[in-house]
Write a structure and sequence with these properties.
The chain is globular, with a radius of gyration of 23 Å. Helix 3 crosses helix 4 and helix 12 crosses helix 15. It is 44% helix and 14% strand. The strands form three sheets. A six-stranded parallel beta sheet has the order 2-1-3-4-5-11. A six-stranded mixed beta sheet has the order 7-6-8-9-10-12, with helices on both faces. The protein has a two-stranded antiparallel sheet with strand order 13-14. The chain starts with a strand and ends in an 8-residue tail after the last strand. By secondary structure, the protein is an alpha/beta fold.
Length: 407
């Protein structure tokens, strides 16, 4: 009987990201390996260190301190870092979600909704983190010729609530922002602080400030008022990939020269961004009509029947504000809704196509190719939390669970 390898998981168990990572790692191990896990309950900002007397075979960790790096390097233990910190340098392999993909997804999301004013709020809980996410968000907007307001809150990793003066400074910053504005917060924890500050400052969310969490955490999103939109980093897929990488390292492979960076999968839309940033009332009403009726077989003529606007005015307004035609916007909204159903349900393609306003699945596939350069089936296989059936073909998968969202 093969000896089971001992693998330490220094990952928090208190967040959607952490639990998703652990599930992905465990699914990989249960499918391909015989590992014994060392895992204890941890909060996201608990200090992650190896026990003094632990002498195992491998580590997968959120490496958030140089002390843990020294432990791993000194003991010569194969390790994979799944954090956004870069403390391990070239000595420790890294596999995580790509910050740039998160930032670009957020920028596109806001721009697609008509926003032309943007803001970013960093984390108050990560004093040692160089904010590459914020930098990438600013860069993504700059490529589209937009600027971005930035707020760097005082860092207090042990803080339960920000001090009164910090909260006052945040409220004042939010009040001074131009409106309407799309605001990306570092994660859902920070985004919830933003929505609370907006409530205290009598600032309307989402109509004045649309708030998007840069990392999805189900609890933070659902207890926020209004509930938070957030970005899904596909933690199960990251965990599976990290497990596979650790297996190779424990077999004697060298640390890869480059980190494995996996793209964020989607944005989960809830009330905190459920708005359209268009100054023209008729154009905004047209957008709302599309959002309410995308599941029907509507065309541009159906908009004109309901909204007192000429076809020329509608076409010109959409091109000016959104950079696309009304017909293209109908297709984009339908594809966006299909993405949610592909990720959050096990519905077959014909049912998803019908629910999103497509007469048949082939039209859904054609729209997906135009909008996302992929097919619905390929998207589902890549982005659902999944059990991978074989090492050589990770596309042969079935979902083990789904994420329920509240639109």
């Amino acid at each position: 009987m093969a000896i089971r390898k001992r693998v330490a998981l220094l990952i928090d168990t208190a967040t959607t990201w952490g639990s998703g990572l652990i599930e992905g790692i465990a699914d990989y191990a249960h499918t391909h390996e015989e590992w014994h896990f060392s895992l204890g309950p941890r909060g996201k900002y608990d200090q992650m260190l190896l026990p003094v007397r632990w002498n195992g075979d491998g580590v997968i960790a959120r490496i958030t301190s140089r002390t843990l790096v020294e432990q791993v390097v000194t003991r010569k233990i194969p390790a994979v870092d799944v954090s956004w910190f870069r403390h391990g340098g070239d000595s420790i392999a890294r596999c995580t979600c790509d910050e740039v993909s998160v930032a670009e997804l957020a920028a596109k999301y806001f721009i697609d909704r008509g926003f032309r004013q943007f803001a970013y709020c960093g984390s108050s809980l990560r004093p040692d983190y160089v904010d590459h996410l914020g930098e990438a968000f600013v860069s993504a907007l700059r490529k589209k010729s937009y600027s971005c307001h930035w707020h760097s809150p005082h860092c207090d990793p042990e803080g339960f609530l920000p001090p009164a003066e910090d909260l006052d400074a945040l409220i004042e910053w939010l009040r001074q922002l131009p409106k309407p504005i799309g605001l990306l917060a570092f994660d859902s924890l920070q985004a919830r602080q933003i929505t609370e500050a907006c409530q205290l400052g009598s600032i309307q969310v989402p109509h004045e400030v649309a708030v998007l969490g840069g990392e999805h955490d189900l609890l933070s999103c659902t207890i926020s008022k209004p509930q938070l939109s957030s970005i899904d980093h596909s933690p199960h897929h990251v965990g599976w990939t990290a497990g596979k990488l650790l297996s190779r390292l424990m077999a004697g492979e060298n640390v890869p020269l480059e980190p494995i960076l996996l793209p964020a999968s989607r944005i989960i839309t809830r009330q905190s961004t459920d708005t359209i940033a268009m100054e023209d009332d008729l154009l905004a009403a047209s957008m709302q009509f599309i959002k309410r009726n995308y599941h029907r077989r509507i065309q541009v003529n159906d908009i004109l029947k309901e909204i007192p606007i000429s076809r020329r005015g509608l076409e010109k307004g959409f091109r000016k504000c959104l950079g696309r035609s009304p017909a293209e916007e109908i297709r984009r909204v339908r594809v966006e809704q299909a993405v949610q159903l592909l990720c959050d349900s096990s519905w077959p393609m014909p049912r998803i196509a019908s629910a999103c306003g497509f007469d048949r699945p082939e039209l859904l596939t054609r729209a997906f190719r135009r909008e996302l350069q992929t097919t619905p089936s390929a998207f589902r296989k890549q982005h659902l939390r999944e059990r991978v059936a074989s090492d050589s073909d990770e596309s042969k998968t079935t979902p083990d669970s789904v994420l329920t969202t509240t639109p």
